[in-house]
Amino acid sequence: MTGKSAPTGGSAAVGAASLDHVGLVVPDLDQAVAFFSEVFGARLVFRMDRFIDPTGAAPRRLGAKPGSGFALAMLAWGDHELELLEWWPGDEDRGSEPDAVGTAHVAVGVPDVSAALDVLRSVPGVEIIGEPVTFTEGPTPGLTNAFARAPWGLLIELMQWPA
């Protein structure tokens, strides 16, 4: 955790908890896998092709409607894993607003935010939202960040922590 202070707080109510992975719903699994692999160097660990449970048990267990199906890919990304899921049938607008409850963003640690933005500018469909900002006060002095959108709308925060 370069540049970050040690976490503070007490014990977790569930015991020794830690982050296992983050899951994101994407509209096109192939596109998302290619994007995270080619742009950020993530590596495909495994992939599960489209699965539809005719009993409806699996979708209900995941909070989805019976008859829904999904495909997923698990990517290794640095010391963490990112699970990408494509659902059928899907709601194109689900999670599209950055302030909608349940909407996610991915924060990516990079050595140089400006250089990362230059790379993202060359990726078709990526929208650069703003130029880098370096904080001088508050809880993250020295942190530089900027935001972009993946081709399907996922908000990406690029983060460069001070040495």
- Count of helical segments? 3
Q: Cα distance, first to last residue?
A: 11 Å
How many strands, what sense, and barrel or not for the largest sheet?
5 strands, mixed
Q: What's the total number of strands?
A: 9
Give the C-alpha Rg: 18 Å
Portion of residues within helices = 10-25%
Low-confidence stretches: 1-6, 90-96
Characterize the overall form: globular
CATH topology of the largest domain: 2,3-Dihydroxybiphenyl 1,2-Dioxygenase, domain 1
The arrangement of helices and strands along the chain is: EHEHEEEHEEEE
Overall average pLDDT: 81
Q: Structural class given helices, strands, pairing?
A: alpha+beta
Q: What is the CATH class designation of the largest domain? A: Alpha Beta
